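Exercise 3.2. Students should predict the tertiary structure of the chain below and write it as structure tokens, then compare their answer with the key that follows.

Predict this chain's 3D structure.
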Amino acid sequence: MINYLLIGIIFLFYIELTSDWLKKNGMWPYKPETDPFNMWMRVMIVLIWPLGLLSYLNGFIKEYLKK
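Answer key:
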């Protein structure tokens, strides 16, 4: 159980770094007041990280193959 949560926290850390980079470079698609990436979403990512990882990889591969 601890390993499961630790992997989720590491995955969330990576997602946080990615979203901060996107916000810094002006590529984040949401305005701050409508940003859906809130504390509840962070908790859910830690708890159900395998689904989040699949979703992330799916989007990444689709964007990578467009180029």
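Discussion points: The chain has a mean pLDDT of 85. The two ends are 39 Å apart (CA to CA).
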